[in-house]
Design a protein that fits this description.
448 residues, two-stranded antiparallel ribbon
Amino acid sequence: MVTFSRRYLLVTLAWLVTRGWVVVLYGFPAAAEGWVDWWGAEWGVVGDVNYYRDSLDALATDGVAGTLIEYPVPALLLLWIPYAAMGLLHLGGEAYIVAVLVMAALTDLLFMVLIVRNRRGEHPRFGVSGAEALWIAAVPALGATAYARFDLFPGIMVGLAVLYAVRRPRVAAAFAAFATGAKYWPILVIPALAAVRSTRRQVILTVAATGVALAGLSLVLGGWDRLWTPLGYQGDRGLQIESVFATPAMVEWGHHGPASGLTVDYTEWKAYDISGPSVEGLLLAATIASVVAGTIFIVWWVLAWRRLRGGGRTEETIVWLVLATVSGFLVTNKVLSPQYMLWLLPAASAGMVLLHGRARTRLGVWSVVLVAVTLLTHEIFPRMYGYMLTFDDVGSPWITEVLAWRNGLLVLLFLYAAWRTTRLLAALPERGRPAAEGQERQTLATSP
């Protein structure tokens, strides 16, 4: 009992307190009595959960092919699980909201437990390691959005893929494949997992087998077209107000309102986009940036596949390659929602488990900035989001400047991750040349 107290009690208490706060912000039904009104429960964030429930109510009529078409079929099935459970218990109304909350909290808890179990023999001085502190802070930093959005699930699966990338490559590959099946962006992680030559075959076979199974399930339930509806849905969208490339237009709108000629509207994609004179140019810039970023990703993947053979720098290289590609995809995308912070936070937490010494310090500083970005995101949504939608002489200029700072920091995070990834890959020996281990260590040790 003493051993448990020294090793796990503090991290357990920290998780319970912070997640209890998230539940309060979520607007747990007990809050309806008013006892949390003073704290400002973020009940509005459950709009997506209500949308999931309403869509599932129509599943029998619309079929899988016409339900939640912005999500892959495996995601629909995952959201259906708590819906079916509530049906079996003959519960309705807000019961689905509570069920999604419970499922999110249990997923969060599982990730926390696996981070703790993978301490690798560490005994943190204060009972909480850097990785654990990061994840403890990450979820409340985003607020109730973390539990009210589907992105928590693929985000954590990506984090687990990073956590087991070297020691259990098949497990990592399965997590990455399931994450990709649930929401297509995690496909960006798979090339990094398959980069190590000694485990490449295992990763590719596992991803292929899992992918075929998920695709087959999707075909049976929803048909061929349903496989591609999420891609078409995203491709047709406009410039979302929170995206990096919308920032100049949003700052202009925030300071001049309707006089700027720009408007913020709720669209058929269930999001708020900005439109006006400069928006077409910003969309073109986002498209060009996405192509450039995609080209850089391919160069990184080719270098990793040619040079990454295993060894002391393998995990660090994989961690930064994942963070660089995912953050690059975020900053060049025309869509950026608050829950997208969950694409990075679990992977960074897993990376903190794997790295040591100066490598961990670098990632720790990067992760602190990421938490700051997440806090700014929380301030934007849901706390001050109204000022992003309806012009106000005081609120709109202020919150659009917060948006500019948030997006600027996010770009800096990508640039550092890209620089670090490039440094690590460039230092690896080319295929066919002997690895100068001492020289490589000396070179990397001198890098800032």
